[in-house]
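Two records follow; treat each independently.
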Amino acid sequence: MDENEIILENDNGGEEEAKDLIKKLKEKLKKCEEEKAEYLSGWQRAKADFINARREEEELRKEIVKFSEKNLILDLLYLADSFDAFFRHQKDKKIKEEDEGIKNIYQQLMNIFKSRGVEPINCLGEKFNPSEHEAIEEVKVDEKEKDGIIIEEIRKGYKMHNKIIRASQVKVGKFNN
């Protein structure tokens, strides 16, 4: 006789046997339901973990693609620095026709940067922020309002997709009584 089979006999003890059997079956059913709930819960956690892992992997992949050009951009920033130095040098001189061509090339470079999510950090007159600026020198200022304010930009800083890829090198005002 299989323990899952129910055989009822017509004698007086059969009723007791049936009650015992029902009690055992209820206990077994309860145990099976608990196991089922445990397995279901484990499966649901595993499924959620898998979905979260897939989402994290996709976000990481997007981040890698987004910043895959970062090293090339950093190399090209030195070219932009050369243009900036040229324009600073030419600032006081009369602009020649060939200088207009150079300005156009510089503008094309800036457009390429912009299309790749790269933008310069504007810092002149701003409060010094160590996460965006690198202080090269402190300059004595006579006005208290200029204390901690960026007085001069030595080298432009840049952000790529709103993350700093190169801090601005700056001179910061320092007020002394």
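The next record belongs to a different protein.
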Amino acid sequence: MSEERHYFPGNNTPLGFFSYYGHILGQREANRIICIKGGPGTGKSTFIRKIAGHFAAKGEPIDYLHCSADENSLDGIVLKDKKVAIIDGTSPHMTDPVTPGAVDKIINLGEFWNEDAIAANKDTIIDLNEECSRWYRIAYNYLNAAKSVYRNLEEIYNSCAEDSEIYKLVAGIIDRVYTDSEISIMAGRKKKFFASAITGEGVVHHIPSLLTDMKQIYLINSPVGYPNSSFMEIIAEGAIYRGMDIEAFYCSMCPGEKMEHLLIPNIGAAFVTLNRYHDMEPWEIAGGDESKQEIILLDMNDHMNKSLLEKDADLIRSLNEEYDILLNKTVKNLDKARQTHMKVESMYVPNMNFTQISNLAEQVEEELEKIG
């Protein structure tokens, strides 16, 4: 078995579909980036999964990039040792070649469909696509409403936070984590992804898979809406200034601004936000050798003014109820979008030559075997 990690390069957010696909593999670090083109139901995920299975059997460490529209579908993989990415390049991701031939390659699965048979369903496909877009618009409107509630929670927790105590906590962590590290003239790189996603099946996360190789794991317990990002950003900047690459995983509600989780692979340190939407017990995140992992529990509730929290207790309770209601409505409409998309897929599946697609996957496997 190979080492594997699972996360989302894109997400459903109050801003609509939010993409960090550009962070998957940089042009200079990549040996090959393969962009898969084709319509719904054309076998992109199956194609990607087949290649992943081939290299997983050989022990290649693999990152599995999940789809926020359907968590069980893959939008891509990264073969980490080979520095190869295979990515679904269709809407809404729209990943296109940047350095064609030298780095990027396009594979068009549309070459293996029966165009006449698909065209016969033109009006139905267009109607279903429009219906699918409508469900997404409704879902994103609910998410926008949820974000307003989230901001109110954030406002309350900001006013309750005991900043001086938090700064002491952060200073102690930085001193401990970076004890043997000096400031570097070469800044580290920052990659951005999502560890969890809002899907038609609810809020889904794969956080434990990201922590297997981490030696020191900080579990930061905090309520939904608590401003952990400033805490995370200070620690992240400390790593970057010391020449360390980091992986930052962002909040679905504030995708461009709020870091929820942080990995610093160079020193095996991880910082994970826990709340009721991604809650875990320490035993759930233990790697293969538990004795090599140190798990530190931090409770940010201990660093808030208790009297102020008590004063706003009824409001906090009400806001959490409203937030849950709006998020549930979001999920229901995302599920309607998913079900509608599956109907579109059913128009393509019978009209695809999957035998030829499977043969093509084997050809790609042979090509990638040559990359050291």
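Discussion point: Residues 162-303 form one domain. How would you locate this feature using only the token line?
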